[in-house]
Amino acid sequence: MNSMWLKLIIPKYNIGKSFCAIHKIGNMRLISSGQEQRFFFRQLFDTVSSTYTYLLGDIHTREAVLIDPVLEHAERDATLINELGFKLVYAMNTHMHADHVTGTGKLKSLLPGTKSVIGKASGAQADIHLVDGDHVKFGEYKILAAATPGHTNGCLTYIFDQQCMAFTGDTLLIRGCGRTDFQEGSSERLYKSVHSRIFTLPEHYTLYPAHDYKGQTATTVGEEKKYNPRLTKPLEEFIHIMDTLNLPYPKMIDKALPANRVCGIY
Does the structure show a pLDDT above 70 at 21? Predict the structure, then answer.
């Protein structure tokens, strides 16, 4: 089969040694990144709570982190990590969830040596409590913990500059945001968090939320700054929108919050 290789260099973005290559083989096109030879990324899903869990790994050192694991899928995640030959260094949460029980505690027993991680302001137990500006390191990679309160006091956005990614938890969803009517919620704080810590990232950064309810998997800073129906509004209008959502009481909150305060072990 004849093949044609095209390489596209994008100098305007500060992505180190990364490049975007478009490979054309017949009618099939594959897009790859130069850094993907050492970086592993996998998005996992829980159909009950519509929660995304993210596995990130350094292929050379075999160290990995898992963001927002779900209790019912802890064995699935541990099996995958073992099959891929990774050592799970950290099981991390973006915040103390109210719609599912975290899998961090169970993963610690399934994968000895794993440490649980959450924001200090969450009030939840963990091996490591992060504050704004802290870094989580695995292999040759590091993720910045950026405080983005508003949905809860302890919400963190994990910014991964080396791969032009950010994991926004419930603070910013795809064309939406987390609710602010319970669990220390504040519409004004959420709005300011998004605009000061997420919308100030480069517009090409890919954003990965903790949930999606409409079948989308990711978005970008540029998309949300342009199309988010809530967060593109002025602050006063945003607060009015959030105050009039009239959402039902979360089904899992009475079980999830007490469990998540103790790392999902209850």
Answer: no
Residue that the structure tokens 């996998």 belong to? 42
Residues pairing with 33 in the sheet = 20
Residue 213: how many other CB atoms lie within 10 Å: 10
pLDDT at 5 over 80: no
CB 37 within 8 A of CB 188: no
> Are 181 and 174 contacting, i.e. CB atoms less than 8 angstroms apart?
no
Place of tokens 């649980």: 116
b/e sequence 148-182, b meaning 16+ C-beta within 10 Å: bbbbbbbbbbbbbbebbbbbbbbbbbbbbbbbbee
β-bridge mates for residue 102, sequence order = 70
- Each residue's pLDDT tens digit, 37-66: 899 999 999 999 999 999 999 999 999 999
Q: Return the beta strands (E) in the chain as ranges.
A: 3-8, 20-25, 28-33, 39-46, 51-58, 63-67, 87-92, 115-119, 128-130, 135-138, 141-147, 156-160, 165-169, 206-209, 219-220
pLDDT above 50 (res 91): yes
Place of tokens 């810590």: 197
Q: 110: helix, coil or strand? A: helix
DSSP state of 158: E
Tell me if residue 133 falls in helix, strand or coil.
coil
